[in-house]
Amino acid sequence: MDTVHFVIDKPQRWDSQFDPEMTEAEVKRLMEIRPFSEMDQGKFSKRTPLTGILLNDARIRRFKNGEIIVRAGDYGSSAFLLLSGHARVVLNPGLPAKVLGRRKSQNKTLFQIVAQLWTNPRDPEVRTTEELDDSSAFQPVGRRMGVFLQDVPRILDEHNTATMSPGDFFGEIAALSRAARTSTIFAVGDETELLEIRWQGLRDLMRFDDHLRHHIDRIYRERTLATHLREVPIFRRLDDQQLKRVIEQTQFGTYGDYEWSGDYKRLAREGTRSPEKETIIAQEGDYPNGVVLIRSGFARLSQKFGHGHRTLNYLGAGCEFGLREIAHNWTRKDSVPFQHSLRVIGYTHVIIVPTAVMEDIVLPSVPREELPEPFTPEELGGATNSATQLKLDAGAKIGPQLMEFLTENRFFNGRSTMVIDLERCTRCDDCVRACASSNENNPRFLRHGQINGRIMVANSCMHCADPVCLIGCPTGAIHRGEIGGEVVVNQATCVGCSICANNCPYEAIRMVEIRDDEGAFMVDKDMRPIAKATKCDLCSDQIGGPACERSCPHGAMRRMDMNNLDAFARWLNR
Amino acid sequence: MRGFLRRRILWTSLLGAASVTLVSVFTLWEGATTRAAYLTGWLLFGVMVLLTGYNWFKKIPYLPLGRSEVWLEFHLYAGVFTGLLFLLHVRGRWPTGWFEILLAGLYAVVMGSGILGIIISRGWPKRLTARGGEVPFERIPLVRRALCEQAEALALKSVAELKSATIAEFYARRLQSFFAGPQNFLSHLVEVRLPLNELLNDLNDLNRFLNESERKVSAQLVELVRKKDGLDYQHALQLTLRLWLFIHIPITYSLMLWSIAHVVLVYGFSAGAR
Fold this sequence. Notes:
The complex is a heterodimer of chains A (about 575) and B (about 270). Chain A is of the alpha+beta class.
């Protein structure tokens, strides 16, 4: 049989510039501006020279007065350096959503949805030329249709803002931690010029330039800490002076491995996952030397049980550990040790406010009735049925075995985990067919996965809170959706390197060989097939949401946020 | 109140209200006209069209038409409602003539297969889960082949390494056909373990004629037999959970076609009737 091949170039890193309009002349200009003028080019590798990073991973953007540069809540994977002009950052509380001019995500029209009846290709993994055309992918909507704040003077009057000047970096927190933007920043004046650096470039700049790394580290910590502490109820009553004193004495801790998935996969293969092997942040029975605030990643909350440890819960970003013990000791002049252990699962970044700071500055500012309840003698004697203990013990709600299962397999990372109730599932595969129908006849998950009791967690993208698949993508093809934060792959810029698929600890990303409209495999000049990463995108372009969930006739499947175990427990006991 | 119970109460209330309304309207209509059967007939046909539409709904999951779970619940309770409609339509009498018998027979098969379907759909997943050894249906032949190859290798190994044909002969006589394909389909459906126990007993009896090394091989075969039996169990139940639809759906379409013919005939021969 004759096979017709569609020959294209095999994509390489920097094949697709962040901005095709970025020129050598602009790079030359940037090289004369701090901090680039002070960077030692000799420290950069030959494959990724400083000028190459600026040419390929950065772009210059100009904003008009009042135009939003970044919006709170958006997911972005780039940082900004203010080159000229000024910008203002809106401090908490932020601007209302209406003022921010949020747009709906790009859903298919009703006609396009109906047209899937006859437009779905017969062959698997077909990509149209429009899908692979990167010209549209590299022209973000924000550039063509900038979002402007209306009545800037009134906003400046009604909201707390801070001015940013040339040389200031921002957006690096979201870019590096793969988190939502925490603040809205808009341009002031019509001559605001910024350098936008996608996170792959920022990562390389930090790797090769110590000064920039320390600089970003410092501002990252300052801004993160002030913002984060303000959001924690116990610190809300502190005035600026007190907060500054707290910040000065606060410690940081990063535990585990930033790219933890490789280590996890190895342990899973060896079958050696166990709490005892995890790094301990705070140990049960030790003196409580500070309140631990989890900034990113996850930690396991466990308690001694027999000769092992029983998982009570997992704590994610925004959770605290040790406050109750410290408050108890402060109010009762007692010396109760930590009642639980806190262990790293994967990667955890924590902020530790020392006990002395808590006792001298923080706790006196909080009314007694707002402090955590002191431990009762029964609790200290080991009773596990107190109201506080039960609230903490998620295992009591969903069952200790399921709790261990979710923790051991790190399913807590999922914000849209596909869980299947096997006692309701008739194995009809309607979900798989619905997924295929909604994705050009390509199912994006396997109705197969880890099982515990009657619950199966299927091999489908969980759209993780900590999406390790984003780490290492050379072109930023895998990214967070702008509004929902779902993890999606831009088919135009995916180079088929498999890094995301290898990073994903849940086997939820597949590499497929793509075809053209006629069904022929696309190949590069060396006749090697072109591969692309594919995964569930939560049917983000469909109107009704994930087709798999809607199509289950027996209500056996749900996409669950594994950080909302109360909802999970309600679903289990429905 | 738990979700499932709340929904059952809601749907049952709706069904009850619809049934009472229907019977009341039918009683009034029957006293007022000789064409009461037209009302129940068209209503029955309309509901049947909606019920058939559920199959089409499942083919277009990308249309924002709500959750399939809710549509299935509607399908179930509306299906029960057609039972009442059918009884009113035929006025509770047995069908006469081949056409009526055919229509009533098709309706009975559709209704019966539907009831069977919902019973097994609600009950058998629990059995599959409790038994364990979950294998996706499409992968069952692959797993079966792997088990068969392992068993065959054990039997051959016993001849080559242990210089004894006892196990190999037993394998050829008793196990080869067991591993070759799905077995004991009906026994699995009705949860009878007699065939497995007989096979295990035979293997146990065989141990009397085996030496220590052969018994180790026999123990491995027992393990494989148990795995194969579990796989057959998965196959039997999963296949039936799919197969009942191959009765329910085609007969439904057949019923719809004959119902259309029924409507045509009724109007064709009703000229002048009042």
